[in-house]
Amino acid sequence: MQQLVALSAARSPERRRDLLQRLIQTCLQAARHGAGQRRVRASYYRVWAASGSKKQRLEPDSSLGRNVTASSVFEKNTKRGNHVWKLLEENQSLFVKDIAEIDTNVIRGWDPQRNRDYATFISVPVRGESEIYGMLTVDAPTPGELTEYDEMYVRCIGLLMASGIALAVSR
């Protein structure tokens, strides 16, 4: 909360950028430790659009935990990215207790054959009223390591991140 206050008072763009990066790291730490597991990884994916292009995608921006950086990219209007973008646009979170039980008819674009270093995950939108900034994910290598309580907690952290980003870009 102190970082949000500092961000709201920052005058220079450089200072706002620096404070925003600190806030994102603090939120990743909070999301990771709030889940109560040492093996949890928290990642922030930011919205990215090529200059002059209407194509948007989510790319990993920052990760903490398990010494493995998130690598998935979710491009809007693709089979793999559509489900993720729909969740963001509808301001919905997703909690999967065990990825082995994912119904690919519900989560279209999910590739069950792809090798992953996690077995459970939570994804929450990082967005304002109308602006999508990105997505916060928390994952762990063992099914059941994350709970519904963790989903609510991570959702709150996502709202804090969105508040900071909104403060940083509103000036």
Structure, described:
The protein has 171 residues and is α+β, with helices and mostly antiparallel strands. Helices cover 35% and strands 23% of the residues. The chain has four helices and six strands, in the order ααβββαβββα. The chain has helices at residues 2-9, 13-34, 82-89, 148-169, and strands at 41-49, 56-64, 74-75, 94-96, 120-127, 132-140. It has a six-stranded antiparallel beta sheet with strand order 3-2-1-6-5-4, sandwiched between helices. A hairpin with a 6-residue loop joins strand 1 and strand 2 (56-64). The longest helix has 22 residues, at 13-34. The chain is globular. The model has no long low-confidence stretch (mean pLDDT 90).
What would the keywords be for this entry?
six-stranded antiparallel beta sheet; 171 residues; globular; 4 helices; 6 strands; alpha+beta
Quick structural summary:
This protein is an alpha+beta fold. It has helices at 2-9, 13-34, 82-89, 148-169, and strands at residues 41-49, 56-64, 74-75, 94-96, 120-127, 132-140.
Shape: globular
Spatial order of strands in the largest sheet = 3-2-1-6-5-4
- Overall pLDDT score: 90
- The gyration radius over C-alpha positions equals 16 Å
Query: Strand fraction band?
Result: 15-25%
**Uncertain residue segments:** none
Number of helices: 4
SSE topology string:
HHEEEHEEEH
What is the structural class?
alpha+beta
| Biggest sheet layout | 6 strands, antiparallel
Compute the separation of the termini in Å. 19 Å
Helical content class? 25-40%
Number of strands: 6
